[in-house]
Amino acid sequence: MIGWAAMHERADLVTDALGRRGNLPAETSTFLGRDADLAEVERLLRQESLVTLTGVAGVGKTRLALKAAGRLHGGAWLAELSGERNGALLAHTIGAAIGLREQAARPQGDVLAEHLADRRMLLILDTCEHLIGPCRALVGQILRAAPGVRVLATSREPLGLPGERVHAVRPLPVTEEDCDAVRLFRERALAVRPGFECSDAVVRLCRRLDGVPLALELAARRLRALTAGELLDRIDDRFSLLAGGGRTGRHRTLRTAVGWSHELCTPEERLLWARLSVFGGTFDAEAAADVCADDRLAGVPYLLARLADKSVVIRNGQRFRMLGMMRDYGREWLHEIGEDRVLAHRHREHSLALRRGMRHPRRRDSGDPARRPESSRPHPGPGH
């Protein structure tokens, strides 16, 4: 039996009007670390029709997808979806990316699926989270019509299709001076400050930035004006510190990258996000319900699972944690809606009860996701 990768190498690949067998952008900077991620994504692409890379804002999903695709033989086509807000135009956007001409007399989704039916190719759909429903429908249509097509999607949450394999992209580890996060910071720092040498302050800075590549790169650019120690001293105001930079769109600043996730949450999910910001470490669903549930926010375990699906919190077994940038954003919003003191008091009560070996006296039964407030007034979040 011939595997998909071998057939992909031998098959007639999709070409556009210029005869190109792919449209992946050239690499403009070095790719560091992620060896295990690359190996796993390549393995999944050889076995599965749909692979989705999920993860928090700025964690490097797109870069990992492009690197994995570039290491496969044959052509790969990238459709960048962040600028498309109209799900009805999704097939047009993908068609344009692979050089497909539109046919006004027929639905573009049908035209696209038919065009790909006898092709063997890798299609990368980058940034799907704001078009989950349309992406789910169109990818399903493509995969049913085109068994030789593989789809590699990047999204802050899974598409939710049968057979989808999800690979969670985690932040880079920060364990010592010779780790992936520090190496990335040093590499980017050398571009703006030749001769830059790492120090203990750099390791601590990378740790405070949770090893998130976008945050590391933005921080490294600030070395034009600040030392690593000065960056570390100012990291409590990370959104102001890490503003600007050379990227475009929603990744110009750390705030806009996180704010994109905030926009994709429901009012109830946003409220829970804000309230969870009082947890400084890991927590479980029971603790989240004890501290965060009240008559305005029910169904906390269900909402917590949704925040994990959307990469707002990170799930580790039965426990959850929130990266510093997500916690800081939630704290800003908690202050905006005037609940910071109330939630701090609830969290303090919860912690004291745990030390006494008691169940928290405030605990509500919020395990039923159908139990929601009859009216949940949405609140405006902090400005992006």
Brief write-up:
This protein is of the alpha/beta class.
Describe this structure in words.
The protein contains 17 helices and eight strands. The termini are far apart. Helix 5 (108-116) crosses helix 6 (132-145), helix 13 (267-276) crosses helix 15 (300-309) and helix 14 packs across helix 17 (340-355). A five-stranded parallel sheet has the order 2-3-4-1-5, sandwiched between helices. It has helices spanning 4-10, 35-47, 61-70, 90-97, 108-116, 132-145, 180-192, 200-208, 213-221, 228-233, 238-241, 254-263, 267-276, 285-292, 300-309, 324-336, 340-355; strands spanning 50-54, 76-80, 121-126, 149-154, 165-168, 283-284, 314-316, 319-321. It is α/β, with parallel strands linked by helices. The protein is globular. The model is unreliable at 5-12, 246-250 and 364-381 (pLDDT under 50). It folds into three domains: 4-168, 3-Layer(aba) Sandwich (Rossmann fold); 180-253, no CATH class; 265-355, Arc Repressor Mutant, subunit A (Orthogonal Bundle), CATH 1.10.10.
